[in-house]
Write a structure and sequence with these properties.
The chain is mainly alpha-helical and 443 residues long. The chain has 17 helices and 5 strands. Helices cover 59% and strands 5% of the residues.
């Protein structure tokens, strides 16, 4: 006579095990997304789920909404996904324990419904946003499927008799607060896109309007926040400890300035790298705030794609990074090249091969000439020289910045300070900085 209830209980328990499996998959996917986000924001190669301009995880992860959520909460979207999956996992484990003991499941089921229901609403909102910006994130879509699957288990075939919504809300919200507190530290230590430009606001009102007797370098540094001054101090310590690799200026790569400029900056970029885009925006602002020929910029390339870079282990198959590098090499040393580079960065999230040719070669004749250059052995050799040169500086990711032969952190306020100082890292104005942190000097 007890076979039917026993069979029903066993069926319910199997559902909870399936729920736990879904939560574990979602947890693993969230952690993977978070790791990939850190990689692309620290100059690593594009994630495997960045397949084209329209199917691209990186574009969604670096979208304005994603940036806003990270900025306001301290935790990126991937971290919120990890928190949601962990709550579902904990509630699933609780349901199995309660079922085995024969205890009421009502409150736990209501907590599960609150969690998965919120997840479905959020997933639907993010999916609509993704459609709105015209880009699909494959791993995000897979996460949405797992959210819906968990919600189906939560809302079908369960009776929440005896459960109380207020207790369920406390349970679900309490778990969320605990997990967010745990994830806040790694969240705040995940690089944000806007960080590079946040401290550049004072540029237009410092070094160019100093009074007689004022040190323009010290004046600029004192306009920065204490945190930014510390970062400049740390960057200066890293720069001073870097080995010198003396190499003549390549006038065919110059974007600004000339071979006699006292400060010579070289940057290695991948056109899909978000940090490279932000560095380009910062350097554009610095160009507007500094006298002509006070510094020069030499553009080089380190595509994060095994198609043309033997130091990389994977390719996204779009050909964008390698083609962009070769195009810019062919257009190097000309105003046209700088304009094309800036436009590529502006369209970074939606850049594809067709767009690139339209931007770089407006007429059939220009395209024919550019195609010939791009496919030439000379261009391949120049790209390989860029890659080898970057490896001499032990590149860890893009952008790589070198100032007067020494590798420098790509922190815009430090770059601007070095330009004001005429390339002298011992300039008097640096004395207003705090000492570098121990972990920096030890490094």
């Amino acid at each position: 006579m007890n076979k039917a209830p026993a069979a029903s209980a066993a069926h319910q328990t199997r559902k909870y095990y399936i729920l736990i499996g879904i939560a574990l998959l979602a947890l693993a996917l969230g952690i993977y997304q978070w790791i990939e986000l850190i990689q692309i924001r620290t100059g690593g190669s594009a994630p495997l789920c960045s397949l084209s301009a329209k199917i691209n995880c990186a574009t969604v992860w670096n979208s304005p909404l994603a940036d806003k959520v990270h900025d306001l909460t301290g935790i990126p979207f991937a971290g919120w996904g990890v928190a949601w999956a962990a709550i579902v996992l904990l509630i699933g484990i609780e349901l199995i324990i309660l079922a085995r003991k024969g205890n009421p499941l009502g409150t736990a089921i209501l907590a599960l419904r609150l969690t998965t229901g919120f997840g479905v609403i959020t997933a639907l909102t993010l999916f609509i946003y993704s459609i709105g910006i015209g880009v699909i994130c494959p791993t995000c879509f897979l996460f949405y499927i797992l959210v819906v699957a968990a919600a189906i288990i939560a809302f079908r075939g369960h009776k929440a008799g005896g459960g109380q919504w207020n207790h369920a809300l406390l349970q679900s919200a309490g778990l969320l607060l605990i997990l967010l507190a745990v994830l806040l530290f790694p969240g705040r230590n995940t690089p944000q896109q806007s960080q590079d430009l946040a401290t550049l606001n004072p540029l237009g009102k410092t070094a160019t309007d100093t009074k007689p007797g004022e040190d323009p370098l010290a004046k600029f540094l004192l306009t920065l926040s204490p945190e930014a001054r510390q970062l400049v101090s740390d960057a200066r310590a890293v720069y001073r400890a870097a080995p010198l690799i003396d190499r003549p200026v390549d006038i065919n790569r110059l974007i600004t300035g000339n071979a006699r400029s006292p400060v010579h900056l070289i940057d290695w970029i991948d056109i899909r790298c978000p940090h490279c885009k932000h560095l380009e925006e910062a350097l554009t602002e610095i160009r507007h705030a500094t006298p002509a020929n006070s510094w020069s910029e030499e553009g080089r390339h380190f595509p994060l794609d095994s198609e043309c870079n033997p130091n990389m282990t994977r390719s996204d198959g779009t050909h964008v990074a390698c083609l962009a590098a070769k195009m810019l090499i062919c257009l190097g040393g000309s105003p046209k090249g700088h304009q094309v580079r800036a436009t590529f960065f502006q369209k970074q999230g939606h850049l594809d091969i067709g767009d690139m040719w339209e931007i770089a070669a407006a007429t059939p004749r220009q395209r024919k000439n550019l195609e010939s250059c791009v496919s030439s052995q000379a261009t391949d050799n120049m790209l390989q020289d860029d890659i080898d040169y970057a490896m001499q500086h032990h590149i860890q990711g893009t952008p790589l910045v070198v100032i007067n032969g020494r590798q420098a952190p790509g922190y815009p306020p430090f770059i601007y300070a070095m330009i004001i100082a005429g390339g002298d890292s011992n300039a008097e104005g640096f004395k207003v900085l705090p000492p570098p942190r121990d972990q920096v000097t030890d490094h």
